[in-house]
Amino acid sequence: MLKIQNYQHGGAILIADDSADLDVKYRINYQRLTLAMVSHAKASIDNFVSETAIEHEFNGGKRSVSKNFYLTESYSFYDKKGTADEIKGAISFIASQSCVDGMVLFNRRMETNGFGAVLRAKKMPRKIYISATSTATPKSLSPHDPRHYGTRHRSMIAYCWSHPSSLGLVISQDGEIRAFSKIENKLIMWENIKTQQYLTNKSQRRKNIRKSS
Q1: Do residue 90 and residue 3 come from a single domain?
Q2: Residues whose CB falls within 8 Å of the CB of residue 201, separated by 6 or more in sequence, listed in order
């Protein structure tokens, strides 16, 4: 989503079980992101285990470690870095698909199934509910009129209303990100909370690095 923001033209992502009510202009089956994330998780675990084993050796009084420990730790470190770069490349490729008019389509395994997709669902709820929290409890919800939003948002609202298992994400031209999903009999919309928190933390980390250097 942050990569799509950088293009400054807006975009949309849909995670859905099937392609009902969708007109997908360009169909693909891109699995690289999913496979890279699995490989990265495995490499991260291997790297952690290796570092823990080496630390245990030193804490036990040894002043050196065996060659096998060192090689295992080195290999797992470079595997982790390589898979991290692969994830970045896959994300950049997927984000570039948003430059085509339409929406980027994912399945629940986070495999890209197409782009340039148009949402065909028309039925709209009378109200949507904006949640101030991630759990969307009754106290956190405030009703809003879906007609107050633009075409891209209304199309996503209509689709998610008709397909309760779907999750829609809309990135507007001004950079705002909103998520949509139907919970019980309500169409819930979440504002740009988590992404903003990530950006704030990232900015703070950069400031800390500058101060320490």
Answers
A1: no
A2: none
Same domain for 197 and 160: yes
Q: 184: burial class by Cβ within 10 Å (0-12, 13-18, 19+)?
A: exposed
Tokens of 95: 């984000």
| CATH code assigned at 128 | 3.40.1700
| 7-66 residue pLDDT tens | 888 899 999 988 789 999 999 999 999 999 998 888 877 766 665 655 655 566 655 555
Last residue in a domain, options 70, 102, 134: 102
Question: What is the per-residue pLDDT across 101-118, written as a single tens digit (0 to 9) for each?
Answer: 899 999 999 999 999 999
What residues are paired with 105 via a beta bridge? Answer: 14, 114
**47 contacts: CB under 8 Å, gap ≥ 6:** 73, 76, 77, 79, 80
Q: For residues 182 and 176, give the distance between their C-alpha atoms in angstroms, rounded to a whole number.
A: 20
Q: Which domain holds residue 199?
A: 1-21+120-213
